[in-house]
């Protein structure tokens, strides 16, 4: 073996001295010197190192990193010659797994040990397994933004409370939206090779917007993180939506926050501590209603609870100056009838309206004690408008709940009636607290914490456009339509609505097309490439992956050339990010489209690397 | 309407259903229907009990039997009257239905069970195996005679059975039924019993049985509103009775049974809706050539993901101002959440859009001859309205497109946005149904109808001949040829060092082709 010497101490074999530092790339670190030959195997060298160090420790995770070549020596049966290692090689004997700070899609930081020696694709798969996120191929890591953006990250609060005063920086232009994509790490190389150091902060994000087989039953973590990524996308205006859509998003967030805070994912009605008294008050009511609620097979045949009371009614008509008038109103099944007085009730009503399919709009101002229900009732002739004015919150909540159910064709015998009443009462109390009323916070300390902060739920431009007291009722209004969803249903609904946005899932890169003299934007989505005019923002051209024949990368001139069917050729050089990232994005989407519909198939890592790699030669 | 009136309606409906069943099972092919037999232990009963279970339990066995007998007796008088009416009407209408072969496709009207004075029941002209029994019309056996057995258990059992039966009957009686007169395109009509649980798909299947048409996916139930001059097809998942309940009593509206290519055009040629990029030339050229495989992947991409992709659609349309005669041109965009327009002086970015309408409470209809009636700029109009609105109203929205193609894109886009994946499921069911029908004829199952009415030949309107497989079935040889071509062209680009092939073919073929291209990125040493 290496190190044979004569009696005088001269080495008689071809052995030489190899110096190996112990630790993570620290030149000051302790080092050991071994006597090796070119035929020494890496495995043998490793053993010798451990012997030399002579310290009791689990060395199993340690391996040799060759600094000059930026390469791990992982093939233990290879010889030093085969690797081409000579005496001048700077080798480090260090752990393959090192701690990193991971920023999850929900913006929380997580410290964990990630593999610095496996290709990133595998390292991400390991991380995802740890977090129990299925389909790790859809995620990847980005470098944390540097310098000025670092400040932003610190400002990014754990509890997402937006405020007009400290506005978050947001991407305004398309050019800004290209920035994050320059930071993606390379999937085919390991973290070490990409200059990541132990303790660095990295972002974990869904990179490819093609979510395979998303199943709320088996994907709770994946669903939550995806929801969080979608949420931040919207709040940071990475993706635009309309006002109506934003209200639905806000309502879903509010609902999800409420459910996750109460910790009862399955339960519908939140248990805000501020509502305890209310709950107590409602308990009696609940008992009463449950008593009359049918539970047996005969539910459809039993009597249906009805509401009867004096309400003030107003019917807006042309050429009329009449205001609200008191009537005796009977609400049975889905039909509302009103009479001049209670005495006339057995006779014919003044009018009878079937509320099935009608629009129910609240017209409420808690501070001025105005509790109106506006009904837009469809009839063969068109829509008839009618306003019901209630005396107080309780009355309003019951009639409102009845109207809402009736509009969906259900009666007050429906099991959701009670929770609906409760939700409306909660709605009113929130409006009192959340600035829906007079806007001043005189309701005690509870008001600000328990109430809904609409600015935490909508993108900044809506914060600028509307006042909180304008937003709150609209969000709560939209909330009525989603109040029955469970936590996962709400998250899924949010993700679906996000996916339905026209600009969903497009990653932007600044490129220069061959033959063009100005920078343009290339958008990459899961099924197509788009060319966008940088100044106007219009989509100039769309190429679909399904028509794509092949793509090539010329690493020397950083140019990507793509060939489509019918000899359409497109070539561009990348400006905002390296062409490696663009290339990997395209290859990644092609890979994802090969996934079989069947579940549980093993990841074809080789195929992925084949499609996204190919630049090692460079 | 009084309660008694309701009862009679229901009895009438049930009776009709029963007659229908009888006619079917007897295979009557002569003109007069069989003299209706007095109904067996069939009764109608719609009373709300506080606790029916309890009151029924309290009854003695004999009492229970007596109750049923009473119920039967109660309705017999009403039956006699209705039977008489039917007999007359059947005779008068049989001429129309004897047209046989040309039955398919047509024109229509609906009669309410309540207000139809003469309802026709068309007897079957052939001996086709009867359609699968409608569970609805399944008559339970009459109550068993009083048990001679004295064992308490058996008595209890028998009583329980009877109560169960009575309850079922009561539930049954609650089921609303309508007699729907469906118009065929030869001006004949067919009357169908439709109960409130049936979907348009069920009714179509029923009509397939009756007309022996080719069952292609294009067949649809079509509602037309002569007064509003609007029309649309029922979506297969829609509840027919629910839709018809919105019609007014004296309505002129009709239900037709006909073929409409537009119904599932989006699934047959998705590229026309998803890849139609504002009339770019090269896109149009490739459009016609799109092969089945590509179509399939386009459909998969659009309809099988976590959420359905709504076709990208935007452009200038004319909008009829509320209650006014003028038509105003505006730039509209379709999104999953509704139709939006670009307000004056704004851009078409998401942030500036104003919501025009959301789809939750409206249906989309085709406008007919709006040019004459409303002075529309073109004939290609669509209408959005709440299904319950039956008369002209400011709440009905009229929009007008420049051409028919745009119109279909908008109507289809709105349907995709409104119904989402359901639409695709409907289509798949329709394809399955059509496939079943064609296989049936392929197997040479000779039915008597085939002899009487030569298949396919007479029907000029059908685009899909019997026996053809669903057209989107991928062709194996095509795929093979395709992958062959792929392998041939997989040369490394001249300037590049790494060529990348697209694995959109079967994986084996793909791997073969990448093997050729793999050399450039050989592992480093």
Q: What is Rg of chain A?
A: 33 Å
CATH superfamily of the domain at 305-412 in chain A: Pleckstrin-homology domain (PH domain)/Phosphotyrosine-binding domain (PTB)
Contiguous low-pLDDT stretches of chain B (5 residues minimum) are 22-56, 88-147, 279-285, 445-498, 503-525
Major sheet of chain B: 12 strands, mixed
Average pLDDT of chain A, rounded to a whole number, is: 80
* Spatial strand arrangement across the major sheet of chain A: 13-12-11-10-16-15-14
**Largest interface pair:** A-B, 72 and 77 residues
Apparent shape of chain A:
elongated
Number of helices of chain A: 16
CATH topology of the domain at 305-412 in chain A: PH-domain like
Major sheet characteristics of chain A: 7 strands, antiparallel
The helix content of chain B is 40-55%
Distance between the termini of chain A: 38 Å
Shape annotation of chain B: globular
Question: For the CA atoms, what is the radius of gyration of chain B?
Answer: 29 Å
Give the end-to-end Cα distance of chain B, rounded to a whole number of Å: 90 Å
Low-pLDDT parts of chain A are 149-167, 264-301, 435-450
Report the sheet-strand fraction of chain B. 5-15%
Organism (chain A): Fukomys damarensis
Domain PH (chain A): 312-408
Protein name (chain A): Fermitin family like protein 3
GO molecular function (chain A): integrin binding
Tell me about this structure.
The complex is a heterodimer of chains A (618) and B (525). Chain A is α+β, with helices and mostly antiparallel strands and 618 residues long. Among the domains of chain A are: 16-95, Phosphatidylinositol 3-kinase Catalytic Subunit, Chain A, domain 1 (Ubiquitin-like (UB roll), Roll); 96-143 and 176-207, Ubiquitin-like (UB roll); 305-412, PH-domain like (Roll), CATH 2.30.29.30; 507-611, PH-domain like (Roll). Chain A contains 16 helices and 23 strands. In chain A, helix 7 (243-262) crosses helix 13 (468-480) and helix 9 crosses helix 10 (417-433). Chain B is an alpha+beta fold. Chain B is built from 16 helices and 13 strands. Chain B has a 12-stranded mixed β-sheet with strand order 2-1-5-3-4-10-11-12-6-7-8-9, with helices on both faces. In chain B, helix 1 packs across helix 3 (61-97) and helix 15 (476-489) packs parallel to helix 16. The radius of gyration of chain B is 29 Å and the shape is globular. The termini of chain B are far apart. Mean pLDDT of chain B is 67; it is low at 22-56, 88-147, 279-285, 445-498 and 503-525. Strand 21 (548-554) of chain A pairs antiparallel with strand 13 (498-501) of chain B.
């Amino acid at each position: 073996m290496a190190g044979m010497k004569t009696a005088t101490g001269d080495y008689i074999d071809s052995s030489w001295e190899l110096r190996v530092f112990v630790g993570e790339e620290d030149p000051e670190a302790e080092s050991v010197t071994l006597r090796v030959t070119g035929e020494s195997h890496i495995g043998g060298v490793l053993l010798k190192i451990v012997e030399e160090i002579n310290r009791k420790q689990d060395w199993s995770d340690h391996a040799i990193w060759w600094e000059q070549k930026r390469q791990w020596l992982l093939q233990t049966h290879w010889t030093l010659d085969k690797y081409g290692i000579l005496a001048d090689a700077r080798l480090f004997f260090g752990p393959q797994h090192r701690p990193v700070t991971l920023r999850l899609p929900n913006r929380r930081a997580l410290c964990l040990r990630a593999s610095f020696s496996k290709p990133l694709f595998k390292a991400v798969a390991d991380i995802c397994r740890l977090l129990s996120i299925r389909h790790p191929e859809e995620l990847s890591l980005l470098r944390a933004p540097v310098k000025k953006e670092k400040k932003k990250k610190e400002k990014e609060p754990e509890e997402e409370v937006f405020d007009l005063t400290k506005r978050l920086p947001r991407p305004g232009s398309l050019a800004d939206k290209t920035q994050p994509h320059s930071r993606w790490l390379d999937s085919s190389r390991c973290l070490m090779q990409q200059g990541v150091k132990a303790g660095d902060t990295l972002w974990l994000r869904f990179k490819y917007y093609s979510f395979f087989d998303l199943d709320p039953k088996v994907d709770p973590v994946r669903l939550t993180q995806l929801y969080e990524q979608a949420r931040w996308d919207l709040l940071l205006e990475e993706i635009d939506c309309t006002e109506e859509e934003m209200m639905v998003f806000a309502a879903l967030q509010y609902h999800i926050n409420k459910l996750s805070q109460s910790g009862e994912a399955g339960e519908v009605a939140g248990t805000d501590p501020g509502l305890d008294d209310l709950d107590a008050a409602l308990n009696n009511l609940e008992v009463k209603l449950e008593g009359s609620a049918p539970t047996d097979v005969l539910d459809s045949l039993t009597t249906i609870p009805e509401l009867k009371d004096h309400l003030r009614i107003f019917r807006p008509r042309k050429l009329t100056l009449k205001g609200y008038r008191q009537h005796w109103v009977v609400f049975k099944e889905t039909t509302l009838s009103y009479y001049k007085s209670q005495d006339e009730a057995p006779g014919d009503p003044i009018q009878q309206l079937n509320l099935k399919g009608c629009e129910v709009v609240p017209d409420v101002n808690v501070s001025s004690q105005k509790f109106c229900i506006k009904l837009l009732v469809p009839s063969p002739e068109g829509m008839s408008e009618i306003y019901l004015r209630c005396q107080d919150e309780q009355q309003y909540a019951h009639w409102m709940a009845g109207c809402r159910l009736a509009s969906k064709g259900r009666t007050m015998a429906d099991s959701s009636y009670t929770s609906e009443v409760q939700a409306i009462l909660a709605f009113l109390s929130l409006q009192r607290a959340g600035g829906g009323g007079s806007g001043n916070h005189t309701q005690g300390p509870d008001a600000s914490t328990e109430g809904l902060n609409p600015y935490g739920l909508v993108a900044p431009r809506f914060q600028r456009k509307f006042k909180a007291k304008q937003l709150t009722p609209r969000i709560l209004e939209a909330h009525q339509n989603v109040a029955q969803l469970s936590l996962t249903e709400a998250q899924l609904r949010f993700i679906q609505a996000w996916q339905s946005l026209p600009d969903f899932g497009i990653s932007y890169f600044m490129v220069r097309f061959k033959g063009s003299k100005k920078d343009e934007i290339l958008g990459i989505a899961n099924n197509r490439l788009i060319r966008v005019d940088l100044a106007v923002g219009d989509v100039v051209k769309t190429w679909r992956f399904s028509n794509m024949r092949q793509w090539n990368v010329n690493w020397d001139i950083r140019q990507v050339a793509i060939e489509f069917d019918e000899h359409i050729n497109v070539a561009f050089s990348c400006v905002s990010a390296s062409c490696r990232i663009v290339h990997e994005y395209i290859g990644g989407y092609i890979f994802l489209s090969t996934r079989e519909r069947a579940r549980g198939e093993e990841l074809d890592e080789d195929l992925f690397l084949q499609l996204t790699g190919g630049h090692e030669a460079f | 309407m009084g309660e008694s009136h309701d009862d009679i309606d229901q009895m009438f409906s049930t009776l009709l259903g029963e007659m229908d069943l009888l006619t079917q099972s007897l295979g009557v092919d002569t003109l007069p229907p069989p003299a209706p037999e007095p109904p067996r232990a069939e009764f109608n009963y719609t009373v709300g009990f506080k606790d029916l279970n309890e009151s029924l339990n309290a009854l003695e066995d004999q009492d229970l039997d007596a109750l049923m007998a009473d119920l039967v007796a109660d309705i017999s008088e009403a039956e006699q009257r209705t039977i008489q009416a039917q007999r007359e009407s059947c005779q008068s209408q049989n001429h129309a239905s004897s047209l046989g072969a040309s039955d398919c496709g047509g024109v229509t009207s609906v009669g309410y069970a309540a207000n139809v004075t003469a309802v026709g029941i068309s007897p079957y002209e052939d001996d086709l195996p009867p359609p699968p029994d409608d569970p609805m019309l399944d008559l339970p056996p009459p109550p068993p005679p009083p048990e001679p057995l004295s064992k308490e258990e058996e008595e209890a059992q028998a009583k329980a059975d009877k109560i169960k039966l009575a309850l079922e009957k009561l539930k049954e009686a609650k089921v609303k039924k309508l007699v729907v007169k469906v118009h065929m395109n030869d001006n004949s009509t067919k009357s169908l019993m439709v109960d409130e649980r049936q979907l348009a798909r069920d009714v179509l299947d029923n009509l397939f049985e009756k007309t022996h048409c080719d069952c292609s996916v294009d067949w649809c139930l079509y509602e037309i509103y002569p007064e509003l001059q609007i029309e649309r097809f029922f979506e297969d998942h829609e509840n027919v009775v629910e839709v018809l309940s919105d019609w007014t009593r004296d309505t002129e509206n009709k239900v037709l049974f006909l073929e409409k290519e537009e119904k599932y055009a989006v699934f047959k040629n998705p590229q026309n809706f998803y890849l139609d990029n504002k009339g770019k030339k090269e896109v149009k050229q490739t459009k016609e050539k799109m092969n089945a495989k590509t179509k399939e992947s386009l459909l998969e991409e659009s309809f099988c993901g976590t959420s359905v992709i709504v076709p990208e659609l935007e452009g200038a349309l004319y909008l009829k101002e509320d209650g006014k005669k003028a038509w105003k041109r505006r730039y509209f965009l379709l999104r999953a959440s509704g139709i939006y327009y670009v307000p004056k002086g704004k851009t078409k970015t998401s942030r500036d859009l104003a919501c025009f309408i959301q789809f939750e409470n409206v249906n989309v209809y085709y406008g007919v001859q709006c040019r004459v009636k409303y002075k529309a700029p073109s004939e290609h109009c669509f209408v959005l309205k709440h299904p319950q609105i039956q008369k002209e109203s400011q709440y009905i929205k009229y929009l007008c497109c420049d051409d028919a193609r745009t119109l279909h894109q908008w109507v289809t886009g709105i349907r995709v946005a409104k119904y989402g994946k359901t639409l695709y499921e409907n289509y798949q069911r329709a394809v399955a149904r059509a496939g079943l029908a064609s296989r049936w004829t392929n197997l040479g199952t000779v039915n008597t109808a085939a002899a009487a009415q030569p298949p396919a030949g007479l029907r000029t309107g059908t685009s899909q001949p019997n026996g053809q497989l669903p057209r989107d079935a991928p062709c194996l040889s095509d795929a093979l040829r395709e992958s062959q071509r792929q392998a041939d062209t997989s040369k490394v680009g001249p300037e590049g060092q790494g060529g990348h092939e697209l694995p959109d073919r079967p994986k084996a073929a793909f791997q073969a082709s990448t093997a050729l291209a793999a050399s450039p990125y050989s592992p480093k040493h």
